[in-house]
Amino acid sequence: MTGRIGALVLRYLLLIRRDYARVVDLVYWPLLDISIWGLFTFFLWRAEVQVPNAMGMLLGGAILWNVFFRASQDVTVSFLDDVWARSVVTILASPLTFAEFGASLMLLGVVKVAMAVLVMGLAAWGLYAFRITSLGWALVPFAGNLVMFGWTLGLLALALVVRFGGRWAILAWSIPFAAMPVSCVFYPAAVLPPTLRAIALALPATHVFEGMRAVLLEQRMAWDHLVSATVLNLVYLGLATCLMAWVLRVALDRGLLPKIR
Amino acid sequence: MVCYHRGPVRSGSLAVEILDLHKRFPRTLALAGVTFHVRPGEVVGLLGANGAGKTTTLHVLLGLILPTSGSVTLFGATPHAHHKAVLRRVGFASPEALMDWRLTVAENLRVYAGLFGVTRRAVGHMIDRFELGPLLSQPFGELSLGQQTRAGLARALLHGPDLLILDEPTASLDPDIADKTRRLLLDIRHERGLAILYSSHNMTEVEEVCDRVVFIHHGRVVADGTPLAVSRQVLGSDALDAASMEEVFLKISREGAA
């Protein structure tokens, strides 16, 4: 099993080496985010706007947002790679199971998250002398929750691509951004109107970013937010897995897999 | 229907056994009771006009499509329930099932070796067998169609399958390359004794390569036997050459049942 998952992860990593556009994608967006939020922090300082630990809050938010975005996007985009290469049938006509295929997509997301965090960490240090480690190791379990929520949304987009075809690929990029306003990346959930706040608190991402602010501003581990994020994640990831299994059953029944374009 | 068997068929000893296979899609009945088998070591041509149901049948065999009803087994096991066990014994190649065009031939073979749990030595053997050495560092997408076909066949045979499923393997190839590919397949069949299920529109190829042919028309098997037996039955003639197989194809495609 690990050999087959490893083979697919190897394939995607070889692709990064062969396709320079991927390297640009891996470096460009993280650098852009760090640059924008770092410069915005300088603006706040110069304008003497009082935002406690602004650098940590904004750069921490940008880094964690990239963790979520990468984990979500790469589940679908990695599958679309196979669709565009017309190699879906070739891969599925091997002893690889759907579960192993899914696991490889998720694992690859983790690898790319690690690469993005490395790039952002180096950029924050090089541009603003900001050490990513100063955010504290308490953020690691929150980042793990963001990866899980990213997988959930990635599976949702993947299910739509498998069911309705590659023209739904746009969802791979847009679904994470649709969740951004109510994920409270850069502001607390308390500032949202009641209805939006209720929606926000139903998302694991909101609890992660609230937890991050508690770690950075109050130097305390927000266990309540960590538990809420984890429980919500387990529920949503379970539902997304069930949806994917159902869509695969429909795809096998309707012969959709060999026809995905 | 012509049905000619060389000997008794024992279930479980067959490379492929399809019994009364039906596949209904929301708007079409793709397969309406397909029945045929492939013995170990046998080369069977799966023939029929476009839309007859050949590729649907092959995709059911690979576990990519669920049958509506009927029974499908490869080496006695169903592809859907025993996916890993079945596909370890099956190789598949088609012009529609490519390797990644951005990766080199060597990188692609390395990846598929990992998927099938194959050693580097076996990969090296296939590289030699298909004379892929000079192509190893080239991206798959930059190969000619003939070279892609060779690389695809090497990939399909990497793990030493007992059954090779080929969906129009020589489509789009020029006659010279198609002939070389056929000879390569016959050599491999001779060396390994593997069964081959071969979908093609090229009747010259079919006559040269296949022990038996199965004609599908509108989702049903309308003829099953040696090329000679099918030709006799359909055309009422003893002559067997490419032209006659072409006539068999045309007659079945235009008039339906043999």
Principal-axes shape call of chain A: globular
- The name of the CATH architecture of the largest domain in chain B is 3-Layer(aba) Sandwich
| CA(first)-CA(last) distance of chain B | 6 Å
| Content-based structural category of chain A | mainly alpha
Number of E-type strands of chain A: 0
Strand-residue fraction of chain B?
A: 15-25%
Strand order of the largest sheet of chain B: 1-10-9-4-8-7-6
Largest sheet of chain B, in brief, is: 7 strands, mixed
Shape of chain B: globular
CATH H-level homologous superfamily name of the largest domain in chain B: P-loop containing nucleotide triphosphate hydrolases
Describe the model.
The complex is a heterodimer of chains A (261) and B (258). Chain A is globular. Chain A has helices spanning 2-18, 20-46, 54-84, 88-92, 98-128, 139-164, 170-179, 194-201, 204-218, 223-254. Chain A has one domain (2-259). By secondary structure, chain A is mainly alpha-helical. Chain B has 258 residues and is α/β, with parallel strands linked by helices. Helix content of chain B is 37%, strand content 22%. Chain B has 9 helices and 10 strands. Chain B has helices at 54-61, 83-87, 105-116, 120-129, 145-157, 175-192, 203-209, 227-235, 242-255; strands at 2-3, 16-24, 29-38, 43-47, 69-74, 90-93, 163-167, 195-199, 212-217, 220-225. In chain B, the strands form 2 sheets. Chain B has a 7-stranded mixed β-sheet with strand order 1-10-9-4-8-7-6, with helices on both faces. In chain B, strands 3-2-5 form a 3-stranded antiparallel β-sheet, covered by helices on one side. In chain B, 51% of the residues are buried. Residues 1-11 of chain B have low confidence and may be disordered. At the A-B interface, helix 1, helix 4 and helix 10 of A face helix 1, helix 2 and helix 3 of B.
